[in-house]
Task: structure prediction
Amino acid sequence: MKSTFFWDDPDKLEADLFAIPVFEGKVSDSKDVQRIDKQLDGLLSRVVEQEEFVGKAGETVLLHTH
Result:
C-alpha cells in the first residue's frame, strides 16, 4: 500500500482513504469537517452524532461514501 500525506484543499482531493484530524470537543468547529459534510449532504455530521464521536485521542469514525 502506498501512502501520501499532504495538506491541501479537501475539495480538490481524490483518494481511497481520507483522514481529517480534529481536536477533542471541536469536531463540528473544524472547517474541513464542515466542507466535507456539505459535500456529503450532511452524512458526516449524522454519523458523528450517531456514533457520539467527540474526537478523543485514539477515537475514530469510519464512513463509507460509496
About this structure: The two ends are 20 Å apart (CA to CA). DSSP finds two helices and no strands in the chain. The first helix runs from residue 31 to 39.
